[in-house]
Each structure stands twice: as C-alpha cells, then as structure tokens.
Amino acid sequence: MTFKVGIVGAAWGGMAHLPAWRAVPGVEVTAICTSREETARAAAQKLGVERAFWDAHEMCRDPDIDIVDLGTRPNFRQPWLETALAHGKHVYNASPHAPGWEGAKAIDAAWQASGAVGVVDAFIEYVPAVRRQIELVHEGYIGTPIGGTCHLNISLFNRASKQFPYNWFARGDAGVSGLRNNGSHALYPLLAMLGPVEEVVADDRQVLSEWVYEDGERVTPETTDTGNALLRFANGPIVQLQAGWAMTMHDGWLLDIYGTQGRLVTRAPTFPSAQDCTLWGLRAQDKPNPHAPSDLQALDIPEAYRVDPDLAIDASFPIPPCFPMALAMQRMVAAIGGKGAAAPDFARALEVERCQEAMSRAQAERRWVALSEVA
After folding, report:
1. In whole angstroms, what is the distance from residue 161 CA to residue 270 CA?
2. Which of 33, 157, 197, 354 has its CA 20 to 30 A from that of 138?
3. How many domains, the chain?
4. Quick check: pTM over 0.90?
5. Which SS3 state, helix, strand or coil, does residue 153 take?
6. Whole-number mean pLDDT of the chain?
7. pLDDT tens across 190-215, in order?
8. Are residues 292 and 152 in the same domain?
C-alpha cells in the first residue's frame, strides 16, 4: 500500500519535509498547500507535486490523502489538526505541538478519539549522536543518572533578516517563544532519555526588545526569546535547561548528562544534525585519577546510526535535518501499518506541553510547579 501525503507549507515543507518523505518507501507526496492559490500552484509545479491546495481544511478533509504534514504557526495548525483527525488522517505535526495548554488538551482529545497515528516533528532523538547517547544512558554507561545541562541556543533576530520565513515569531498570538520552540525540541529527547519530569522552576523573558532589519525597519516583538529552567525528573536527576533564539554568537546544542559511573555529552554548533553533532563520554572506571578534571573522549557512532538500508537518503544528505526527519517518518509509516510504535508521538507531545505549562506557571508565580498540578 502507498500512503499519500499532503504538506502544509512550501518553504521549509518543500525544502526539508518533501525530500524526507520521498526517501521513505511506501509514501507518495501528492499535495502541497499554501495560503494563496497562486503560491500553491507555483509550489506544486516547482516541487513536482500533483495537487495544489490553498485551504488547509480542504486538504485535511480530502479522501485521497492519508497523512497530513502540518507546518506554520501553532495557532493556525490546531484547527487544521482537529479537522484532519476528525476525517481519519494520520498527522505529522510541527513543534511546538499546540499554541498552549488548552490547545494541547483539545488536540489530545481529538487524537484519542481518532485512533490515528500522530507524530511530532521533533526529530533530535534521531540525530545519530543523540540517538546513541540516549541508548548508552539506557544501557547504564553513566550508571544512575544524577543531573546535567541542556542548551539549545540560536541567533535568529540579533540581526533580523526579511529572508527568514518565520518573522511571525514576533506575534504574541502565534503560540511561540524561545522556550516554547527550542525548549520543546530539547524536551523530547530529554523525556526519551530520562523519563517524565516531576516539577520545574523557570525564568522566561525577552532580551531583544526590538528587531532591526537590513532596510532599517524596526519590529517590537510580543514574544519572549530566552528561557532558563530547572527540571526535576521523577527518577531523580535535575537538568538545567536553557533555550532561546536571541543568544549573540550562539552556542547551539549541548546535552551534558552525568551519573554515578560516567558522563555523556552531545554537542552541535547550531540546531543538531546528522553531520555536525558529536558524542563524547567517559566512564569512571576508565579514568585513572577520579579527582582530576575530566578529559572526555570522542565516542564512535556505529554506521548503522548513519545509514538505513530502507531509506533513499543517509546522514550525508546535503539538507541536514532530512535524514533524522525521514527516520521519524519511516517509523510513523510502520506504525500506521501496525508495525511498532511511532515516536515522538502525541502522548509525549502532551507531556511536553504539560511541562511548558508548568514552566509558564513557575515563571508567573515564582515557585517550583509540579506537573501534577497541570490538569
């Protein structure tokens, strides 16, 4: 059986999602949707896609489409997503998953009622170095996890550009922020590695009060851009999370996790990809002097993490997100066919959104907030 996919969004959707879907066997991308007829038709012709839509609800209802891939603003996506689920579609949804906690609960109710497979486009756990790091933690490489640090800092508007297709990040009604966007992407692999979060305390603020564009135009953003949080996991570890899009000369990705017997670190200069994310580690048993500063060793990542024989692309594909994205899509298609479970699925998405709501309450109330308070 061939599953037919419709993509909402021709910019990033056409550049990254389309080649990732085309790499997955048993999938055909048959539709592209933008907000206007002329751009939709132009995108379909340019990308070699059979059908053009300029009404996302219409595409989400179309009986000839099996999977919808939803991009753009969270507040736009929620009603489309509910339409898709109500019409029996499987959904590959962008991150942040929802515009806020109430939206997340509405999406979860629609998903639970639908029986569909829902996957979030939060693919860091499929980046080879991070995938191996998660596996090694589960295998006991670091012993019992104790704590760590996670950063996902990038520079989007320190020098604002009108060529960047996401300048709507300034809008307060869009359901985005530095902590909601980058923080969500970081939370998915953290939950996969360490399990559920029990409580949080957070600070979420705006450090860039104005975006200045190349032509001199100035925009006053309505969103926060820099978040810091402490996450206490149910099984004990405390992780410092820093996420945002306003760091001058950003430090990119860092996931540094340590335990009773060792330490594992992944690093990337920007959003982690299959090409530039590295893995470092050291076990206490391999360290001659336990009191000296650690000199972490580069760890080999097996070739099986960089190549999948069933995919038409591998980790060397020139558009960096495509390979880990294709792995998530491949697992989704298998789950639709009754083989295995999709990940990260909408159940984990709800927990990420619950954590985001707890961080928002912690910011507002200046206290630790237990996730059990977020009902």
Report:
1. 18
2. 354
3. 2
4. yes
5. strand
6. 97
7. 999 999 999 999 999 999 999 999 99
8. yes
